[in-house]
Amino acid sequence: MKMPASLAIVAAWIAASAWVAWTIGGLPGYVVGIVGAVTGIAPHVPVTPKPDSPEEAPEIEVLAQARGEHRAVLDKYAEWEFNPEMLLRFPGLWDQSKPEVHRFFDALSAATLAEPEGRASDAQVGRYAAAVEELQMAWAGAERHARSTGTTNLSARFRSEADTGLKLYRHAQGAVTAEERQTYYRRALEKVRALVQAGLLPATLPAVGRLEAEQRDELVSPPGPTSPRLRGR
Known about the structure:
By secondary structure, the chain is mostly helical. It has two domains: 5-44; 56-215, no CATH class. Helix content is 69%, strand content 0%.
């Protein structure tokens, strides 16, 4: 069997040191030479790190998969909460009086709290994976509810506010002049604020701040899906 390179170097060093010590001090020198050689080179011998045990590998894969699935749901939700048009078209996504919506926000919070930090135990990984699975199912239910209901669960007054706000927002995006665009955004923002004041939308939603910035003509480019953790609660 071929000797590893690191061991070959160690053996050569010890042999050379022992020979020099023998020629100088005989048998006592020989012994001292070997001890000194081993002591001197030991700190410089490379140590191969211990690989993860076969039992740990599956847990690492489960954790990575759960984190990827968690991130995917957060990115999907961000596409809604950053977009003023989605607020006006599907305000039902934030109506936590509905079981589907309440389940989603509970699952969102639970998955965030369950995500391990640093090295995780098998039990922690299992709890996190289960929380993410629940989050995926809860998001599917909440999105389905929001898309299927649109603004139909709103009263006639607030359904009109949402529909008018959506038209104004779309007019603003197609406006030719900055003055015209700001006027449309301002009027759309008034409709959104009416829904917020009625408790139909959270005031802390990023889309509300985005619309305010657009109305002031301060928004340079749309934000990407930064996947916030618990916004919109």
